[in-house]
Amino acid sequence: MIQSSAQSYLKVAYDLRPSKQVERRMLLDFFRRLAGCGVPVEEFRYTGMGSVHFIDHTLFHKFLGIDKMASVERDEDIEQRIRFNCPYDNIDLEFMPIGEYVPHLDRDEKHIVWHDYDYRLSRDMINDVVSAVNHLRTESFVFVTIDVEPHKGSNGSVDNFEFYKEQAGDLWDPSWKISDFANAKLYRRTIDILTLAFREGVSGRCNAQFLPCISFVYSDGHKMITVGGQIGGAKESTFLDRVKDSGAYYIVREFGKEPFSINVPVLTRKERYHLESAMPSADFEKVKAIGIGKKEFDAFARIYRFCPSYSELLLG
């Protein structure tokens, strides 16, 4: 049974998830660097799943200059709240599964489509990805976010192997064994299945490949992955390589490589300011006296430019 992504807005403050915010800011950094290489990012149309928060739409509009946008939501029960919270009048609001909406997108336009699911892999999700990659024009981007927590059966026991085998369908690799679906490996197998879905989407297209560029693993409670890339050829691949060479160290340009791990250490405000004073040289000797371990320091050094700051404002 497909879970409704809409219901999670009642449980999670999406604007306060530090790892998710780092992911968003890295995507912004990626597209800004791409624009710096000469790609007119502001001409793309963005389609995402904004729910009642519209965080991605707001960031893409403000910082990338994207004006053409759509937010897709399958749960019509929250339509009133979505319409109330919509931040701009240039966002088309669509109430249907995103897999039904994307095939109707204009093939003459360049698109950025983010299937930002908050539940585990499903066959419908795989079909959505295949359909999007098959339909969208060359130069378009497709990203997918999925929960990779272990699957528990009706009796409460973990049964990853059978669950993933059922969801993968024709994309199942018969060489996979039960041990390949141990809890610690689920993120890797999910990426593998999505890789096959991306390739399936372009298999019938002439002069087009799916060019990977984003692969993240992170956790704000649940372990999540985001993977994606661009539909294109040699020209698009050259631009992606230029972005990576420009200093976008978080980019993963090859299928099968380990994803970039977003790990936001839990720090006090004072500790964070002190660690930032040692950046960008990342000299641990400057800060080790405050008691932060080298592991936490290294994790912070990898993401500090993208890490959000939260403050409490007291009124009255």
What can you tell me about this protein's structure?
The chain has 316 residues and is α/β, with parallel strands linked by helices. The chain has 2 domains: 12-262, Rossmann fold; 269-306. The protein is 34% helix and 16% strand. It contains 10 helices and 8 strands. It has helices at residues 18-36, 55-64, 79-85, 98-101, 123-135, 160-168, 186-202, 234-245, 269-276, 294-303; strands spanning 45-48, 69-73, 91-95, 111-116, 141-147, 209-219, 223-232, 260-262. It has an 8-stranded mixed beta sheet with strand order 3-2-1-4-5-7-6-8, sandwiched between helices. Helix 1 (18-36) packs parallel to helix 2. The longest helix is centred in the N-terminal third of the chain and has 19 residues, at 18-36. The N and C termini lie far apart (48 Å). The model is unreliable at 1-6 and 9-15 (pLDDT under 50).
